[in-house]
């Protein structure tokens, strides 16, 4: 279950600062965007969320270079960085957040295990990328990713 108080706080802070946010999701499949839209008034600060689950979608919708996807993979620091920057630019928003990871139960490797998630927050003049290792079943990994995304944006306002 998502923490609605934190979501409400996130929306209030975005609105108070006059900031907008856009979202690019892969492993979360729209959960972050869905969580934002649970909060009344979120349309004042949230206008675009894209789900780019495949590499083709990441390339075609967000313009992630094939060189990045081929060299580093969809689940990488570089891809998360480009996703956040691209969705921010695409939406002409103040902030862009992205999520890419391996939610399982399959798909993991020795170097990229199930539970590995990268998220990035593109700010006005910089981009912060975080790497996480979550455990548990698929749903828990995805929900933990969304929760950490909320925390990441809230941290921006501190």
From TrEMBL:
<protein>
    <submittedName>
        <fullName>CinA family protein</fullName>
    </submittedName>
</protein>
<dbReference type="Pfam" id="PF02464">
    <property type="entry name" value="CinA"/>
</dbReference>
<feature type="domain" description="CinA C-terminal">
    <location>
        <begin position="5"/>
        <end position="156"/>
    </location>
</feature>
<dbReference type="InterPro" id="IPR036653">
    <property type="entry name" value="CinA-like_C"/>
</dbReference>
<dbReference type="InterPro" id="IPR008136">
    <property type="entry name" value="CinA_C"/>
</dbReference>
């Amino acid at each position: 279950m998502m923490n609605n108080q934190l979501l409400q706080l996130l929306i209030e802070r975005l609105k108070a600062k006059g900031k907008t946010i856009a979202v690019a999701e892969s492993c979360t499949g729209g959960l972050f965007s869905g969580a934002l839209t649970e909060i009344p008034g979120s349309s004042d600060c949230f206008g675009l969320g894209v789900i780019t689950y495949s590499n083709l979608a990441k390339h075609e919708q967000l313009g992630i270079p094939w060189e990045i996807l081929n060299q580093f993979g969809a689940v990488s620091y570089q891809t998360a960085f480009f996703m956040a920057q691209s969705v921010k630019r695409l939406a002409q928003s103040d902030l862009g957040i992205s999520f890419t990871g391996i939610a399982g139960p399959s798909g993991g490797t020795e170097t990229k295990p199930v539970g590995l998630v990268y998220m990035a927050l593109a700010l006005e003049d910089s981009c912060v990328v975080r790497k996480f290792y979550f455990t548990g079943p698929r749903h828990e990994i995805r929900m933990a990713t969304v929760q950490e995304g909320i925390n990441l944006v809230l941290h921006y306002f501190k």
